[in-house]
Amino acid sequence: MTCDVPAVGSIDARAYRIPTPGPEADATLTWDSTTIVVVTVRAGPVDGLGWTYADATCVPLIRDVLAPQVLGAPVTDVPQSWEAMRGRVRNLGRPGLVSCALAAVDLALWDAAARALDLPLARLWGRVREHVDVYASGGFTTQSSEELAAQLHAWTRQRSIPRVKIKIGESWGSMVERDLDRVRLARQSVGDGVELYVDANGGYPVGQARRMASALAAWDVTWFEEPVSSDDLAGLGQVRGHGPDVAAGEYGYDLAYFARMVPYVDCLQIDITRCGGFTEWARVAAVAAAANRDVSAHCAPNLSAHAGAATANFRHVEWFADHDRIESLLFEGCLDPAGGTVAPSMTAPGHGLSLRPRVAADYEL
Ligand SMILES: [Mg+2]
């Protein structure tokens, strides 16, 4: 019996920018497009695919800085490759784009490793569960009441997703009455049987966020994401206990950040395409478990689902409208969140997704 695995032969990265259907905004940012950086790792006969939602400047970082650390390594030795990349970027600064680039390579390596072993990714990592809960996410502050109601209707009635999230905190928390009007509209649109979440993207000051938490509880809102800036850990803690669970963590790029944050939130959000990939995700989830907290996946739904299936203290995947649209456009083999859960395939090797090169070419930067 031989146990050889192929070595990493090549690593490539390309960036694609996909326009949004119209202007979109949350409490503290507006945007009209989303950039995705896609990494392909070739190891023997297989290609692994990873990605991050980050700026195109990740491309030269991946090609010129990270790839040389990994080429020639056994494809399944992902933790060793990850440590080599982390060591190389010390003087570049780990948080931010560097960590996003690291994540995309890490995820492509894990996918290639699983394909080299002819295993589904969730089989390689080891499943805790077959089905992963999802929540639908969008509800941008730029939407009209009719557009918001239509989106909520599509999620809950057409796709039968029993958890939804909308944006509040419009214009840095300066439009509280409209925020509450939209929450009321959302509750009335989805009915009593659907979990309703809100995301203020750090738009409120602490006192206002505490008052909002009480008002949100009246509409049975059970998740209050970034009620204040996620840099204000004490402020996050002060909003807890006023009704909804407090969640944050989407700007977490390294383990120490999450370790500092975990005492101040009810649920820790991890973005697998920002935090350094699955290698760091698993350690972050362990930090949360040690504090008796769940984790929830921020965005990148078709990658996050596999990690969710392999993580014990996992709550749900954010099925973010923009990323759902982009992944369904660019990749073959996407999961369908209809019914409110997804089940990573146990037959397709890796994460089961492949790039549609002819479609993607139209969006390449
Ligand atoms: Mg958020």
Automatic annotation (TrEMBL):
UniProt-listed InterPro entries: Enolase-like_C_sf (IPR036849), Enolase-like_N (IPR029017), Enolase_C-like (IPR029065), Mandelate_racemase_C (IPR013342), Mandelate_racemase_N_dom (IPR013341), RHMD-like (IPR046945)
UniProt GO BP: carbohydrate catabolic process
Keyword Cell membrane attached: no
A GO term for molecular function: hydro-lyase activity
Keywords: Magnesium, Metal-binding
Record-annotated Mandelate racemase/muconate lactonizing enzyme C-terminal domain positions: 145-246
Cofactor: Mg(2+)
Alphabetical list of PANTHER family matching this protein: ENOLASE SUPERFAMILY, MANDELATE RACEMASE (PTHR13794), MITOCHONDRIAL ENOLASE SUPERFAMILY MEMBER 1 (PTHR13794:SF58)
The name this protein goes by in its record: Mandelate racemase
